[in-house]
Amino acid sequence: MDKDTSGKANNSADKTVIWKRLFLATALVLVGVLVASLPLPHPLTSRPVTTNLTGVLLTLGSLLAGLVVWWSLLAQKFSPQVRTFVEVLIYLTAINIVVKFTGGLYSYFTFLYFLPILYSASNFTARYSWAVFIFTALIMSFHLLDNNGSSFSGSVSALILNLFGVWLVNGLGRSLAEQLELIHQRQVEIQLEQLNKLDKIKDEFVFIIAHELRSPITAIRGYLELITTDSALKISESLKSLLQKSFNTSTKLANLVGLLLEIARIETGKIRFYYQKIDLRDSLDFVTAALRSEAAQKDIQITTQVEKENIVSVDKERLEEILNIIIGNAIEYTREHGKILISSQSTEKEIILSISDTGVGIAPDKKDKIFEKISSDDDQNGEATVKEYRISLYVARQLLALMKGDITCESVVGRGTTFNLSLPRYWSWGTP
Q: Is residue 430 classed exposed, middle or buried when 0-12, 13-18 and 19+ CB atoms within 10 A define those classes?
């Protein structure tokens, strides 16, 4: 979330809270004026209040018994919020009975209603907190049936006064809960902004490091290639073999740095695509020609069953990079004398390119993880390890997704793997 969007959201939330407070304050003033004009008995403290101690004790015993039954038989069947909601209703019922045995609407214990009301208003959703308020209003209204000798109008006035206090506490509790929620949301937004900044710095750092490593690695590869191919230099076969291994290792390192640089471009948004209509067979011929020497070292046969004039709308360089990744992996994880088959199917909107090998395959529990950039699951058995596949396939999937394509995998351990690439025939915004 950018600063402008975050600031607008915060201002909107602040205005909402302010309007709610103004509404609450206005309602309190108006209702307060009405309550002040009620025909209450004067003074209230002069009302005779009798206490039934036996009733109070029975109420407390019943409350404990009800809670024991609730927790032992029923509570675990409901969600935590519903359990708490039911418990609040039990407490309110017990308080109502205590109030009844200690003077009804004129009891000194009516303040006890405020405690569960404040708790529910501060911790429950609006629906549950207002349900608690309505329940409280209903059970308090039953005291009108037992007015302790006072006039009916006086009892109604006392009820309204008590309900006004309950409503006041509920409203203030809801306001407090919303303010705390707003503060929590702002803290989360600040933390997300900080994490996004750190993530961006990390991506920039990887991009810079990968870019700086590319030049010296290219120079090292050039020197090694010059030494191993220059016939004028007289070097022993053992040294030549060692230099060739060093060259192959530097090539792998260069490819890894290239993948890291590509990931950094993707995640920092610095990657650019130049779409054009190309013949898929031409790109396949270019990539397979570059990889045939590598395949020949393991006597792997590459067969291409893709006709000419299979036109796709993609970035040519990125497509060849993806094909190099998929076919290169197929060569690497296919045993000697194996086979790689490249075929295609056309639909109205896309071409499905399938690249199948007779390699070691991928275990079912690892198949869904091979497109992830990071995973804690590493295979130690030597079977087409997810760890070695992962970075290149992550890049391939991301590049395809950015070009409105997709890639899926089908594999059987010990029999081989097939990658299916979906390539758009047209630009997503254009016509054929």
A: exposed
